[in-house]
Amino acid sequence: MKIIIIGGGIGGLTTALCLHKAGFEVKVFESVREVKPLGVGINTLPHSVRVLTNLGLQDIIAQNAIETTDLAYFNKFGQPFWSEPRGRFAGYKWPQFSVHRGTLQMILFEEAKRVLGADAIVANHHLGSFEQNEKEVIAHFVNRETGEPMHTETGEVLIGADGINSVVRQQLYPNEGPPVYSENVLYRGTTRMKPFLNGTTMVMIGHMGQKMVVYPIDPTPDENGDYLINWVGNLREGKSKLTARDWNREADKARLVDIYKEWTFDWLNVPAMIDGAKAVYEFPMSDRNPLDRWTFGRATLLGDAAHPMYPIGSNGASQAILDADYLTECLLKYNNPLEALEAYDRERVPAAAKVVLQNRAKGPDQIMDRMEERFPNGFSEEEIPHAELEEVMDHYKKVAGFDVQTLNKKG
Ligand SMILES: Cc1cc2nc3c(=O)[nH]c(=O)nc-3n(C[C@H](O)[C@H](O)[C@H](O)COP(=O)(O)OP(=O)(O)OC[C@H]3O[C@@H](n4cnc5c(N)ncnc54)[C@H](O)[C@@H]3O)c2cc1C
Fold first, then answer.
1. Is the CB of 375 within 6 Å of ligand 1?
2. What is the pLDDT of residues 130-145, one digit of tens each?
3. Which letter does DSSP use for residue 304 in this model?
4. In ligand 1, which atom is closest to the CA atom of 14?
5. How many Å apart are CA 366 and CA 343, to the nearest integer?
6. Helices assigned H by DSSP within 166-216
7. What pLDDT is recorded for position 410?
8. Helix (H/G/I), strand (E/B), else coil: 139
9. Which is the closest atom of ligand 1 to the Cα of 7?
10. According to the model, what pLDDT value does residue 255 have?
11. 302 within 8 A of 223, measured Cβ to Cβ
């Protein structure tokens, strides 16, 4: 069976590797002229690292990523109120990795070229539209700049892994309109600096109105002993600040330094960290309303094309990888691709919708707002509602499919 994948991001490439391993013929078409290591940090949680491990990629990712040992929450004064071990340190069979998105994408890209052959990963091919009949699906590619037709490809299944601005989704849901803006803007950067806390901790500081997420993403220090630290500021900017949905749009660094100027803790100097970044990128925190179905005959959606979500709870890339794994399982199980895509839809549409909606409801980070609302001027150790915070954190893990007992039963 020949499968056409639209989009060579983390979702599309993982799908290609999973399907190839299962014996399917796969071809990936990527819009950009050249695949480059873009973006900043992302996380892969144990449930998705399980899939990457089964593809034989755990070692190479580990060499290029930080194995996250713990996740810690602090208020805006730098006071700690929650900490938990992560990945193998929490008893999972698989680690949690914090990694540069571009590094992970290039690992997947190189591996896909190696095992599928370079001809199976085709850059500079932008999907314009597709059509299908009883036997096949036909993808029409165009020149991205001019819209001129340039190539047609025929297969038995088409997977739209073409991101938040998916052309496949747009064709399936022509009236949907743009993503839903949360009135929050994300400010993303990386800074070379000395490690903080134990050097492998991921931290969340503040509350949803003004938040900062910080974690290291590269295990190799430079000649000064500095590590690459990823950070993402979240500011509630309101309707007025809807920036373009362009992952590479630069923001005003000086403004951000000023907003965070008070956040100088004895364990981390946030304004200095922001100031030390070469560039700061801004992206509107957006998602899309969950769909009732992703599958229409021989075409389906995967990853951000299917379920773009707020980057809360470190689940964006991981859920795309889970889609890849389950879709492969369905295509192996059913001889008929139509039945396979229906089965994929039945399982993954509601599962991903729950994560999208949980993230809208602030996911695990709702503990930050609870602490801010209750203790806007700080708290004493005895006042921390440990049991309540634990309940929120456990619930999210179950919804997102990574509670330790359930996951460890899988091979
Ligand atoms: C350049 C870039 C930078 C990013 N940086 C970050 C980051 O720093 N932090 C973070 O949390 N998330 C980032 N993301 C999003 C993150 O990668 C995804 O949320 C997650 O990994 C799910 O991946 P995906 O493969 O579904 O979608 P994406 O990673 O968005 O990949 C979609 C791919 O499809 C391609 N494509 C789009 N339209 C077409 C078309 N019509 N025809 C062919 N190909 C098409 C795109 O070029 C892209 O390579 C970034 C995405 C991109 C594209």
1. no
2. 999 999 999 999 998 8
3. G
4. 25
5. 33
6. 167-172
7. 85
8. strand
9. 34
10. 95
11. no
Place of tokens 């998602």: 287
- Going by CA atoms, what residue is nearest to atom 30 of ligand 1? 163
**Measured between alpha carbons, how far apart are the two ends of the chain, in Å?**
26
Residues for the chain: how many in total? 411
pLDDT at 407: 86
Where are the chain's structural domains?
2-38+102-178+289-360
Q: In whole angstroms, give the CA distance from residue 290 to residue 273.
A: 36
Does the structural domain 2-38+102-178+289-360 have CATH classification 1.10.340.30?
Answer: no
Q: Which atom of ligand 1 is nearest to the CA of 311?
A: 11
Q: What is the pLDDT of residues 267-305, one digit of tens each?
A: 999 999 999 999 999 999 999 999 999 999 999 999 999
Tokens of 86: 């992560």
Contacts for 382-390: CB closer than 8 Å, 24+ residues apart: 384/81, 384/82, 389/81, 389/82
Reported as half-sphere exposure (CB side, CA atoms, 13 A), residue 110 has a value of 10
- Quote the ligand 1 centre to 163 CA distance (angstroms): 5
List of the chain residues with pLDDT < 50: none
pLDDT of residue 403: 82
Cα separation, 257 vs 7, in Å, equals: 35
pLDDT at 79: 97
Joined together, the tokens standing for residue 191 give 């800074």
Alpha-carbon dihedral of residues 172, 177, 182, 183, nearest 10 degrees? 160
Residues 6+ apart with CB under 8 A from 244: none
Query: Which residue's entry shows tokens 């370079």?
Result: 118
